[in-house]
Amino acid sequence: MAAGVVKNETHGFKGRLGYACLNTILRFQKPPVFCSRTCRIDTIKEKGLDYVKELGRLNVLDLVKLVEWNEENNIKFMRMSSDMFPFASHDDWGYSLEYADEELKAIGVLAKKYGHRLTTHPGQFNQLGSPKSDVVRRT
């Protein structure tokens, strides 16, 4: 087992242990492992959309590391960050996730292999009940 990794002892617990978004052990190792790399619109204007897409791709690659760590520690449930693909649903800066199709399929195969449940939680701007049709469309 890697240094600094704490083995999760569940003592016969039959449910699914899990957590939301941030693994506080892997997040603070060097280099950090996390799935919420994001940026500001000014950064998109400066560095371009390919930069933002690469943040999303790196988030998915780290998700693989998180799922592997979860399996080693008997954690079978994880809520993924709603920031995995920064600004993907933005009206002006939005983009399709097709560019990360291969990486996303790989994480799905891995989660299925281990019997893990991966979920997501909508961000604060996702509102299906909004009176504004553009907000519902983006959601």
From TrEMBL:
Q: Which PANTHER family match?
A: UV-DAMAGE ENDONUCLEASE
One example GO MF annotation: endonuclease activity
Has the keyword DNA damage been applied to this entry?
A: yes
This one is known as UV-damage endonuclease
Under the heading InterPro entries, the entry gives: UvdE
Which keywords fit this entry according to its UniProt record?
DNA damage, DNA repair, Endonuclease, Hydrolase, Nuclease
**Membrane-crossing residue ranges in chain numbering:** none
Q: Name one GO cellular component term.
A: mitochondrion
One Pfam family it belongs to = UvdE
Please list the GO biological process terms of this entry: mitochondrial DNA repair; nucleotide-excision repair; response to UV
